[in-house]
């Protein structure tokens, strides 16, 4: 029997509809319009596409939305000045600086400069600390999206053994914390893990956030496990003729063809975790706006 396919698009659509309704309520009942500022430095094509989608989707949800497109040679102090202005802007409740930044800019001071209460990407050290301490935090959007898909698919996650492969600050670590908060027993695996296939085989929930195309093989998966593939990797087409024409496609960190024969449920790439990220960004912006305005419900 093949795995149930966990489709991200309809879940993301549902989340966006909920956010849109909440924005309309906040505007009607409190005169509050959540505002998102997205900052893009340079002209990286993938970043431009992400930023465009964030701008369009926030506007479609009824939010105030501003995109700052800065030239690739923007200086560090110019970027920091813009962040300071956005921190002080009462119309802006969420600030997202699209990463990666051009090489001459230092990411850390830029992220540190964002007001933690407006840090809708959940990257500020204060939000990372709040998450670990079990306090209300703005949490990175992709990990939150993974949790929504997991709860939709499995319901209560209590007692399940979750293995997260990847320990980045943006993805692996926050997913591990969210799974722990959901009462999973969590194993964090990474490039130095010994016998990774055996570790993966012990997982009821396997989250792959590695950045290595199709690395997780079918025989690394426990039969019936739920597999969340966060990876987005661009590779040449399998067909050599199309590959020779330079055609590429997106694949995950999991070998999907093999995994779908073994897993109980699995996210596809694309259209699995990917669509959840922007929907969760909108949700984080609403959360930030309500907290800043002191609105509890
Ligand atoms: P990073 O490169 O920051 O982290 C990769 C992690 O994987 C590291 O912890 C690294 O271990 C680990 N790793 C690398 N190679 C191996 C290996 N051979 N065996 C075991 N572990 C390994 O990547 P990100 O976390 O930022 O992203 C991970 C993937 O998720 C990427 O494909 C990215 O494109 C995708 N992504 C998708 C998003 C979405 O919206 N769906 C959003 C963000 C990311 P170590 O720490 O030891 O080096």
Automatic annotation (TrEMBL):
Residue spans making up a coiled coil are: none
Annotated metabolic or biological route of this protein: One-carbon metabolism; tetrahydrofolate interconversion
CDD domains per UniProt:
NAD_bind_m-THF_DH_Cyclohyd
> One short Pfam family name for this protein?
THF_DHG_CYH
Every copy of the Tetrahydrofolate dehydrogenase/cyclohydrolase catalytic domain together lies at 6-121
**The keyword Endoplasmic reticulum appears for this protein:** no
The name of this protein is: Bifunctional protein FolD
Locate the Tetrahydrofolate dehydrogenase/cyclohydrolase NAD(P)-binding domain: which residues?
Answer: 140-291
* UniProt keyword Amino-acid biosynthesis present: yes
List GO BP terms, alphabetically.
L-histidine biosynthetic process; methionine biosynthetic process; purine nucleotide biosynthetic process; tetrahydrofolate interconversion
């Amino acid at each position: 029997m093949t795995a149930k396919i966990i489709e991200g698009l309809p879940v993301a659509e549902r989340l966006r509809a909920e956010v849109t309704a909440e924005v309309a309520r906040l505007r009607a009942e409190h005169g509050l319009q959540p505002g998102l500022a997205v900052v893009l430095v340079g002209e990286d094509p993938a970043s431009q596409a992400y930023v465009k989608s964030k701008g369009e989707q926030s506007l479609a949800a009824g939010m105030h939305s501003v995109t700052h497109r800065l030239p690739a040679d923007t200086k560090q102090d110019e970027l920091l000045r813009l962040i300071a202005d956005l921190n002080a802007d009462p119309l802006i409740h969420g600030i997202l600086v699209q990463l990666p930044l051009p090489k001459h800019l230092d990411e850390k001071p830029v992220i540190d400069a964002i007001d933690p209460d407006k840090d809708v990407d959940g990257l500020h050290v204060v939000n990372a600390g709040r998450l670990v301490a079990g306090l209300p935090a703005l949490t990175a959007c992709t990990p939150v999206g993974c949790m929504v898909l997991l709860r939709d698919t499995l319901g209560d996650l209590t007692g399940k053994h979750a293995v997260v492969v990847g320990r980045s600050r943006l993805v692996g670590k926050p997913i591990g914390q969210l799974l722990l908060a959901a009462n999973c027993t969590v194993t964090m695996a990474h490039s130095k893990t010994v016998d990774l296939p055996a570790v993966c085989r012990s997982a009821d929930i396997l989250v792959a956030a590695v950045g290595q195309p199709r690395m997780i093989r079918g025989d690394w998966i426990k039969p019936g496990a739920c597999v969340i593939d966060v990876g987005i990797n661009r590779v040449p087409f399998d067909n050599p003729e199309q590959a020779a024409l330079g055609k590429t496609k997106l694949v995950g960190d999991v070998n999907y063809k093999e995994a779908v024969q073994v897993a109980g449920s699995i996210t596809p790439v694309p259209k699995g975790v990917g669509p959840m990220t922007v929907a969760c960004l909108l949700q984080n912006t609403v959360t930030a706006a309500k907290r800043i305005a002191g609105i509890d419900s």
